[in-house]
Write a structure and sequence with these properties.
Strand content: 25-35%
Oligomer: single chain
Helix content: 10-25%
Order of helices and strands: HHEEEEEEEEEE
Distance between the termini: 67 Å
Strand order of the largest sheet: 1-2-3-5-6-7-8-10
Length: 163
């Protein structure tokens, strides 16, 4: 009888260990943990983003009617990605380049990107369960597009939402 109890206990212990190992191995996905850069890229690419406000200290939202922003690119560590913006009209001068390439700022992936055409560093924040995106930057220069002299230099904030 004692041999039977001993075998029963060994079997029970082996069964518990096997179930534990099986549960542990099936608990996660087959993908290794994603980097912060990959996670942030996925959040930004979850758009398209619709402009809700544009400001340089004054409300300039009406200058970008119907503006949307879309981030694209395939993840690569330290990668270069793209964005495109569309609107039914653009101001004659703008600090916002309609399309460009960009990358995350090393060491600040969760909050900063750099627009590569002119090396403007932009601070971004995702809020409201990642459904609101604010991009702020200081712009120095003549602005993009063509036309008359108008100051677009200064601190800008563009705010977008997505469903």
């Amino acid at each position: 009888i004692s041999t039977m109890n001993h075998l029963s206990r060994v079997f029970t212990v082996l069964l518990i260990v096997s179930v534990g190992l099986l549960s542990f191995n099936c608990g996660g996905s087959d993908d290794p943990d994603k980097s912060e850069e990959e996670i942030q890229l996925e959040k930004l690419k979850a758009g398209p983003w619709t402009l809700t406000s544009a400001s340089d200290g004054q409300d300039r939202t009406s200058e970008y009617p119907g503006m949307t922003l879309t981030f694209t690119g395939t993840f690569a560590a330290g990668g270069i990605y793209a964005y495109t913006s569309t609107a039914s009209a653009w101001p004659v001068k703008s600090p916002w380049k309609a399309e460009d390439t960009w990358k995350f700022v090393s060491g600040s992936v969760g909050s900063k990107i750099i627009r590569l055409h002119d090396d403007v560093e932009m601070t971004y924040a995702l809020t409201n369960s990642d459904k609101q995106l604010s991009i702020s930057f200081n712009y120095i220069g003549a602005g993009f597009e063509n036309g008359r002299t108008e100051s677009v230099e200064g601190d800008w904030v563009f705010t977008f939402t997505r469903p």
